[in-house]
């Protein structure tokens, strides 16, 4: 008996050739109609926009080819600062988020102060707009003129992003911990594992897995929000675009900056979608077993 | 041969003002297989959870091997659970670990055994219960019967003196009940002391040394399976048996 046949000798999968041909034909037709529809839509919208009376001026100020070529390298250069801010902030955010999430679920009465602090932190930093935190830290702390504390705008801008996003990510982690069914904890404890061992080996690995998609969403959001640091003055990409725009009264640099952000966030978004789809598939498989 | 392993005296347990266990007494001898029967809500699961400290009792005492009081305030519950294993209706395997890691986790972390030692021990157990081929599989690739047998092996790996089974076949496809019951049968043959809450009356009759009928939080009737199933004394036992055996 070959692997592809059942005990009765019939093949495991069998398609009626006529049915199969029909299916293929329909798929081809659907693809063609879809492409034609999309192309038609783009043509109609593009035509409509280009016929508006303001279009020539918009094209000149926002989509100026020579301006684009002149400003783009500078924007890319400035964007490295955004990337640096992101790369430094992200691991710190994950660390703070995880620690705060764990602190909020502490039960020992001795550790009540930690729990209260963690709760306060989340309440405050989730409630204040990120840009306000950047203003307050970026202008406020250096004004105190404390000894040994950096008064560098990038430093405080990054710190503000870390604090603001840390509160969000803490809540994401906490939701993940809550999503692990209590029977898992019970099973682990019944095997003699201590509460700490149960968290470390049983609850946290599952919790982190469950929150990967929302975490990726927050990463994408953070990539964009690095531009908020521009309010403090450092020349990152948005600041650079502002400088370009104000010196030539042409806004093409803003469009260039937008393109650069998109070039980074779209792959990240697709990656997040892919991870999410894969996890959904895994979960359905687990449900069927 | 009738050395007492577990002595439960006067145990009370209430949830939200409703008593589930009322002054319950039960004693289990070493190597004995005790089967708990009774309607849902009669207190079988609660009793099992109290025995290994997953629930705290409101009054009474549960003494293991004459020296360890599960219910005392200063008892180290982790120590209790090292000596009493429990298997649940919903297998509760750890989905992020393969079968082997599920089985070796607590021997490594709780008993501090080496990786290779606990691995060898786990493989011997898996082999014994026909699961060796599944060692590298993740729980979502197992059938319900296999998953429940792995859960039993996982509890056995801690080498408990007493094993508790809480309706371990209730969530299974009827076709898979047999393989799990075979596992329990083999453990009984091996001399393991066990307390099992179940609705499988045929199995209870075959394997139990003693059957206890729980009703409203007390052991209303107990005795050899032939006695309890053959000529129950209490009206409630008769009523329960006639309903479930119908």
How would you summarize this macromolecular structure in one to three sentences?
The complex is a heterodimer of chains A (289) and B (246). With 289 residues, chain A is mainly α.
Description:
- The complex is a heterodimer of chains A (289) and B (246).
- With 289 residues, chain A is an all-alpha fold.
- Chain A has a domain at 82-233: MetI-like (MetI-like fold, Orthogonal Bundle).
- Chain A is built from 11 helices and no strands.
- Chain A has helices at residues 17-51, 55-62, 65-104, 112-127, 130-144, 153-179, 182-190, 195-210, 212-225, 237-248, 252-288.
- Chain A is flat, with a radius of gyration of 27 Å.
- Chain B is of the alpha/beta class and 246 residues long.
- Chain B has a single domain, classed as Rossmann fold (3-Layer(aba) Sandwich).
- Chain B is built from 9 helices and 10 strands.
- In chain B, helix 5 (144-156) runs parallel beside helix 6 (174-189).
- The interface between A and B is medium-sized, with 21 and 28 residues.
The coarse silhouette of chain B is globular
Q: Largest protein interface?
A: A-B, 21 and 28 residues
Q: Might you state the CATH topology name of the domain at 82-233 in chain A?
A: MetI-like fold
Name the helix and strand elements of chain B from N-terminus to C-terminus, one letter apiece: EEEHEEHEHHHEHEHEEHH
Features:
heterodimer, A: 289 residues, mainly alpha, MetI-like fold, 0% strand, B: alpha/beta, Rossmann fold, four-stranded antiparallel β-sheet, 10 strands, 37% helix, globular
Q: How is this fold's topology laid out?
A:
The complex is a heterodimer of chains A (289) and B (246).
Chain A: H1 17-51, H2 55-62, H3 65-104, H4 112-127, H5 130-144, H6 153-179, H7 182-190, H8 195-210, H9 212-225, H10 237-248, H11 252-288
Helix pairs in contact in A: 3-4, 3-6, 3-10, 3-11, 4-6, 5-6, 6-8, 6-9, 7-8, 9-11, 10-11
Chain B: E1 4-15, E2 18-29, E3 33-37, H1 44-51, E4 59-64, E5 68-69, H2 77-83, E6 84-87, H3 99-109, H4 115-128, H5 144-156, E7 162-166, H6 174-189, E8 193-197, H7 201-207, E9 210-215, E10 218-223, H8 225-230, H9 235-244
């Amino acid at each position: 008996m070959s692997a592809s046949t059942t005990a009765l000798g019939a093949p495991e999968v069998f398609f009626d050739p006529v049915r199969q041909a029909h299916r293929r034909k329909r798929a081809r037709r659907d693809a063609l109609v879809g492409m034609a529809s999309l192309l038609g839509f783009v043509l109609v919208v593009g035509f409509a926009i280009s016929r508006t009376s303001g279009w020539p001026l918009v094209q000149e100020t926002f989509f100026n080819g020579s301006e684009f070529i002149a400003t783009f390298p500078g924007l890319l250069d400035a964007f490295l600062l955004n990337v640096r801010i992101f790369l430094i902030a992200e691991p710190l955010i994950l660390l703070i988020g995880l620690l705060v999430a764990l602190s909020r679920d502490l039960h020992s009465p001795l550790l009540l102060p930690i729990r209260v602090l963690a709760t306060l932190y989340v309440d405050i930093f989730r409630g204040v707009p990120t840009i306000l935190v950047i203003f307050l830290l970026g202008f406020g702390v250096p004004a105190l003129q404390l000894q040994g504390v950096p008064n560098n705008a990038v430093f405080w801008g990054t710190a503000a992003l870390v604090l603001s996003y840390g509160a969000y990510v803490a809540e994401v982690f906490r939701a993940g911990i809550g999503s692990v069914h209590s029977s898992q904890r019970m099973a682990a404890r019944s095997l003699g594992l201590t509460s700490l061992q149960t968290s470390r080996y049983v609850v946290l690995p599952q919790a982190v897995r469950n929150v990967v998609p929302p975490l990726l969403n927050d990463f994408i959001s953070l990539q964009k929000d690095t531009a908020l640091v521009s309010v403090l003055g450092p020349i990152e990409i948005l600041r650079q675009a502002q400088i370009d725009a104000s010196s030539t009264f042409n806004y093409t640099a803003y469009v260039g900056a937008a393109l650069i952000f998109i070039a980074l966030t779209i792959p990240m978004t697709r990656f997040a979608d892919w991870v999410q789809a894969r996890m959904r598939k895994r979960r359905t498989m687990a449900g069927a077993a | 041969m009738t050395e007492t392993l577990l002595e439960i005296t006067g145990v009370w347990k209430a949830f939200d003002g409703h008593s589930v266990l009322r002054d319950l007494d039960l004693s289990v001898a070493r190597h004995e297989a005790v089967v708990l029967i009774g309607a849902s809500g009669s207190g079988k699961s609660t009793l099992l959870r109290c025995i290994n400290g997953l629930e705290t009792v409101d009054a009474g005492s549960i003494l293991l091997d004459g020296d360890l009081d599960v219910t005392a305030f200063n008892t180290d519950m982790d120590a209790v659970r090292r000596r009493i294993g429990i298997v649940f209706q919903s297998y509760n395997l750890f989905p992020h670990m393969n079968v082997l890691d599920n089985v070796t986790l607590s021997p490594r972390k709780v008993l501090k055994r080496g990786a290779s030692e606990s691995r060898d021990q786990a493989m011997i157990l898996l082999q014994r219960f026909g699961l060796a081929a599944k060692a590298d599989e993740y729980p979502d690739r197992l059938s319900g019967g296999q998953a429940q047998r792995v859960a039993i092996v996982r509890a056995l790996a801690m080498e408990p003196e007493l094993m508790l089974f809480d309706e371990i076949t209730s969530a299974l496809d009827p076709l898979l009940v047999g393989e799990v019951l075979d596992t329990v049968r083999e453990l009984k043959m091996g001399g393991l002391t066990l307390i099992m809450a179940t609705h499988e009356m045929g199995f209870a009759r075959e394997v139990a040394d003693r059957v206890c009928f729980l009703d409203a939080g007390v052991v209303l009737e107990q005795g050899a399976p032939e006695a309890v199933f053959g000529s129950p004394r209490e009206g409630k036992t008769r009523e329960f048996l006639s309903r479930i055996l119908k």
